[in-house]
Design brief:
CATH topology of chain B: Cytochrome C Oxidase, Chain A
Number of helices of chain B: 16
CATH superfamily of the largest domain in chain A: Cupredoxins -  blue copper proteins
Oligomer: heterodimer
Radius of gyration of chain A: 27 Å
Largest sheet of chain A: 5 strands, mixed
Helix content of chain B: 55-70%
Order of helices and strands of chain A: HHEEEEEEEEEEHHHEEHH
Radius of gyration of chain B: 24 Å
Distance between the termini of chain B: 18 Å
Shape of chain B: globular
Order of helices and strands of chain B: HHHHHHHHHHHHHHHH
Strand content of chain B: under 5%
Number of domains of chain A: 2
Number of strands of chain B: 0
Number of domains of chain B: 1
CATH topology of the largest domain in chain A: Immunoglobulin-like
CATH architecture of chain B: Up-down Bundle
Shape of chain A: elongated
Amino acid sequence: MTPIQTPNIFAPVSTPALAIRDLSFIVLAITGAIFLIVAGFAVYTLIRFGRRPTNPEVEPAQVYGSTQIELAWTVVPLLIVVVLFLVTARYVYGIERRHQPPDALEITVVGNQWWWEIRYPKLGIVTANEIHVPVSDAANPAPTFITVKSVDVAHSFWVPQLAGKMDAIPNKTNRVWIEPRQVGTYVGQCAEYCGLQHALMLLVVVVHPKEEFRAWVTAQQTAPAEPTVARGGRDLFSSLACVNCHSIRGTPGNGVFGPDLTHLMSRSTLGAGAVRNTRDNLRAWVKDPGAFKVGALMPAMKLDDAQLDQLLAYLVTLR
Amino acid sequence: MATTLMPAPFPTPVEVVEASSPSGFAATLHDWVVTVDHKRLGIMYVVTGLIFLVIGGIEASLMRLQLAWPGLTLVPAETFNRLFTLHGTTMVFLVGIPIVFGFGNYLVPLMIGARDLAFPRLNAFGFWVLLFGGVLLYFSFIGGDGLYGAGSAPAVGWFAYAPLSERAFTPGNATDYWNLSVLITGFGTIATAINLIATIATMRAPGMTLGRLPMFVWTMLTVSAMTLLILPPLSAAQIMLLLDRFFGAHYFDTQAGGSAIIWQHFFWFFGHPEVYVLMVPGFGFVSEIIPVFSRKVIFGYATLVAATVSIGAVAMSTWAHHMFTVGMGGTLNSFFAASTMLVAVPTGVKIFNWLATLYGGKLRFRMPMLFCCAFLFQFLCAGLTGIMLSVAPFDWQLSDSYFVVAHFHFVLIGGLVFTIFAALYYWFPKATGRMLSERLGKWHFWLFTVGFNVTFVTMHLPGVLGMPRRIYTYPADRGWDILNLVTTLGVPLQALGVLIFVVNVVYSLRHGEPAGNNPWEAWTLEWATTSPPPAYNFATVPAVTSRRPLWDLHHPDDPDGPHE
């Protein structure tokens, strides 16, 4: 994986985020100019009239107001507001009304306490916490349209370098789109307080070159190979309560409350960014998820060491 | 002719021996508990607010400690979530409201030449209900155990978004204490708002027309009217939540087809105007203080009144700018962007009129003025970041990030708290008869101002770099660490500043310089009576002929009347 970057909203790589940056430059220019003028005048006034007066006993001239001046500093800001509003409305509609080409990639992101389910409905892929999309270029635009939902409380989908945030709200279907122009890994996380582990609900978007993306899709669509050495682990998985919440294609496990584990080891973290996905961490996670992520809804499965070893031997084959 | 309307000088109050004479702690306590005097209740409101300010400040300091560096484990996740819930609820409902309405209680009758509020008993009811509402919130630490065993506090955030606040996601009683506390303090606030409106409408001194009301009274009238419009919907929403949690209603229960969005509308229909309910009286303080310390009449009184009322009116239609990211669609996003930007116009007018008042004045940088000057710059910044947030697409990036947290702390501390400190230094002599120390005041001012700016200027940046609010920890590789450390480093400076202020109050209550009736040579009616004022405020109800009765008194050759 490429090194993680700071998710700076001023370092956008995708069309909507780029548009928002352009808009923000206009806003910053206007507000910056207002700040300089008003603060400058205030500093001047405070310095000039703050000096010790020569005749402190005499009150200064009393100025009660001026209709012309006051009208001027009401109307000018009003005009600025009108301009700013027109620019804003243009960008609002420009971003929200993006036409979806028929062959565009579609993804459904479902917020859960405290992880993201990622579905590719047309491709039959279900994964978690990591979104993989192709890069887009001017010759072959490849926007990705994302449907944002929630199964429990309100969350918010936010990958700052790709697009503005979109809330995931139960009983509501929201949409957002991205069009990344640069290969790389972009981080984000849940941006609406959603309970105990709101802080550990991280998200990664990996932008691949087109062929690499196709290879990823093929790999994800392939059911895991029949385990040769770890059959015992698979049987153990199938016999335990794991299957109530987790799915692994080709096994009796078809639960939907937890992340799909079909290609568990292709993902870089456990617990939505709580800890890196290594064999040792995975073992510790299965033993007691609360050790990494207090309050995680997966219970400690109370397995003995032999069971853990057997299960791990199977889980690490899910590449 | 005019002099008969305006007896000069105002008759000094006759010494009246009060009926309740027995002294001692028990007697004093009894006097304060049973009082219906608007001045005592006003002081009790403000002191209650200041005590909760310290509590809320300690909560904030603990959170900043935990966020000073990535991956710290000083405050556990659950505790952190409770801290920001209590911090937000405390600062809005138990600090902002009591202090603002406390000043309103104390000052409005004095400023309009009345002897008390219209309904003194209702006033006492409002205070005690608010105080016990606050106690109820903190009682959740002991009583909120519910299903989870000993001790818990609400952890739903101060706007308690549904369905997180539903029983399915927050079992136990902690959320119920939050729910009831907000509901009950709301009743007290509604009572006080009614009282202030009735008082201003019916109990003004002869000659005190609406066009001569001091600016602060205009701001209290405006925010009291807003309170009557916004608090009942909040109470309704709290009752609906109560029904959901206890009686199986499904207003916000999404699992049974309820709506999460409708809670957000209810809450922000209260929550956004509430910011103005707190901030507009702050504008009132500034509009009273800047003229006195510039030695000039306020520039453009009529425009300022119009600006105050239009802020109140426009602010009623901006609430859903808190919801730009919930997927409202282009039409609503554009509407709320427009209405939000529109508030900037009357707000800008206020800043320009204050600057015009300063211009050409003979400025005296005493403590109230210093806090007002810092306020001007900080509130300008707060307003400009507010404009950035009103631009809906920009808000899609900034919303719920630390940029927003920095923005509203610039409004509520850099704006409101600074004006509250200005007001405390300005009216403390009136309420106690003694001046606060300027020497300690300077230490307070500079420590607090530097600390505030170190913390909250810096806090904008992690938001721009993608740091969401309300996270108890963050990864080390995001580039947020140094910024968070600097943000935290401003906290001890602010805490020390507040500590010096407390010392100043305690010291000056006994040893402060005697204030006299009118230490600042101010012009509004409260300065015509003694410091502290007698229980009945004025021996004879004064008649007024202009906006600045005491100016007229001292400048009989050039009274304000003809200029108005």
